[in-house]
Amino acid sequence: MPIASMSTNLDGAFEACRRETAEWAKTFYLGTLLLPLEKRRAIWAIYVWCRRTDELMDSAEAQSRSVEELAERLDHWEHQTRSLFKGHVSNDLDAVMADTLDRFPQDIQPYLDMIEGQRMDLTWTRYPTFEDLKLYCYRVAGTVGLMTQGVMGVDQAYTSAPWSDSPDTTDAAVALGIANQLTNILRDVGEDRGRGRIYLPQEDLDRFGYSEADLMAGRLNEAWRELMAFQLERAREWFTRSESGVRWLSGDARWPVWTSLRLYRGILDAIERIDYDVFNRRAYVGKVNKLLDLPRSFALAQFR
After folding, report:
1. pLDDT at 71
2. Going by fewer Cβ within 10 Å, which terminus of the chain is more open, N or C?
3. What are the DSSP calls for 88-129, one per residue?
4. What are phi and psi of 249, to 5 degrees?
5. Is the dihedral of CA 138, 141, 145, 146 positive or negative?
6. Which residues of the chain have pLDDT under 70?
7. Which run of H or E residues covers position 197?
8. Alpha-carbon distance 173 to 210, whole Å?
């Protein structure tokens, strides 16, 4: 039914989105707290839509479903998403997304692309090349950059003159999403191994002489360390690509985005500190370090 005719507690639904974001995306959540309320709530709503999409494939319950059942779920979710973009909602979580789309109009394509990323997980458990992995990273995470860039907005100082054009932040937004997903992949190698998935490109394993059998055994040797050092450097390059777009963002968005970028990139440093042992240990940025980074990110946000 149209959102205008649906009785829903939007405040309560947005609060549910806040709690879910805080529980499942702690580093990301800290950055959102620096946004104005309207933008903050919109980002929470988008995050929860993305998580609902991800859970169709990755929840514990989904693991017991057949490929055919999961494909049917994704088809239904795509249909529901298309209806949502036409203003029709069926529950409170749909309603907060409809409210977000009303306040911050967006194109549907990134949402459909993310669903395509989930479809890749139906059939892809290995990635022969980085180009293959990059497509996956775009679909499941680069799309998030596209979903959120309209919420963040562009600094009016760049568009106030009659001859000014709005800067294109698309490439940087996608780059940040890809950087984040590459970081997730490197942090979660051990967890993904347990689900029979290897996201590290096969061409890279071959290049460094580290076999799939080595990975499945969790073998920590010099070949693994060299392979991981290469992967971390690649992820850092994607973070660097994304930095050029942050300066174009509206003043109230630069600090949160710098904070999220720097803290997520800090996970790469944490992987180095545990000597690349992502099989047995979890790499993360501690709460104290997160708080210490806030003034540094604030300082960066003052410069365009």
Report:
1. 97
2. N
3. B-SSHHHHHHHHHHHHS---SHHHHHHHHHHHHHHH-S--SS
4. -70, 160
5. positive
6. 1-8, 158-166, 304
7. none
8. 33
Q: Which of these, 255, 252, 251, lies nearest to 294 by C-alpha position?
A: 255
Rounded to 10 degrees, the C-alpha dihedral 44/261/113/121 comes to -100
Helix then strand count (H, E) for the chain reads: 15, 0
Cα pseudo-dihedral 186, 187, 188, 193, rounded to 10: 50
Contact 41, 96 (CB under 8 A): yes
From CA 294, how far away is CA 144, in angstroms rounded?
A: 23
For 91-100, write each residue's pLDDT tens digit. Answer: 999 999 999 9
Which domains does the chain carry? 9-108 (1.10.600.10), 124-304 (1.10.600.10)
Closest CA to 101 of 80, 77, 79, 85: 85
- CA distances for 141 relative to 67, 85, 283, angstroms: 22, 20, 20
